[in-house]
Amino acid sequence: MSIDHHHDHGAQDDHRRQFVAPDSSRRQQPAAGTEARLAELYDAALDDCRVCQERLLALVAQDAHAIADVVNWACVITAETYGDIPDAFLDEGQEDVFPEPFRQLARVYQDHFMAGTDYETMLPRCSAMTEGQRRQAAAAAVALVVGLSDFGVDFPFP
Ligand SMILES: [Zn+2]
Predict the structure, then answer these.
(1) What pLDDT, on the 0 to 100 scale, is given for residue 11?
(2) Maximum mean pLDDT: which of 87-91, 135-139, 154-158
(3) Which of 55, 100, 120, 132 is the most exposed place for a label (fewest CB within 10 A)?
(4) pLDDT given for residue 71 in this prediction
(5) Quick one: which of 154, 153, 145 has its CA closest to 42?
């Protein structure tokens, strides 16, 4: 599918655009373009552009590293906002908002971030998921980042 537009991440008058996609430097094998792809996915979600979100989610779902990145991003912002990952994010009660693949990864974050091993632990889980599950996890993570961006939390990544 070809598109004739681009979602601009550079709008300085919109604080939400200043959210920075996850730092992939921790990866052993950085995939070129993934950070830019996640930023564009986030911008497409901010712009409520369904076509681009579907296109980018399909690409992101093929990449276990990108899934770990975007879920990690959502979890860091969640923890910044609430001081923790709220139980409601991890319980089964809101399957439509927090589907099982997302919850599984959020629990990994919750259990491992203190030790700084959350990303490394998430990665094999992401690899083991089906593309459909990875897509679900990414969609929930992006929706969460967009939702929390309205709070204006200072995002800790430079
Ligand atoms: Zn678009």
Answers:
(1) 63
(2) 135-139
(3) 132
(4) 94
(5) 145
| Dihedral angle, C-alpha 131, 27, 98, 80, nearest 10 ° | -170
Using DSSP, state whether 87 is helix, strand or coil: helix
- The verdict on residue 18 lying in a domain is no
CA of 46 to the centre of ligand 1 (A): 10
d(CA 61, CA 136): 8
Would 142 be classed as within a structural domain? yes
Whose tokens are 């730092």? That residue is: 23
Checking if the pLDDT of 73 tops 70, the result is yes
Is residue 71 included in any domain, yes or no? yes
Residue 157 domain-assigned (yes or no): no
Report how many domains make up the chain: 1
Question: Which residues surround the ion ligand 1 when the cut-off is CB under 5 Å?
Answer: 44, 49, 52
**How many angstroms does the Cα of residue 57 sit away from the middle of ligand 1?**
12
For residue 79, give its domain range.
30-149
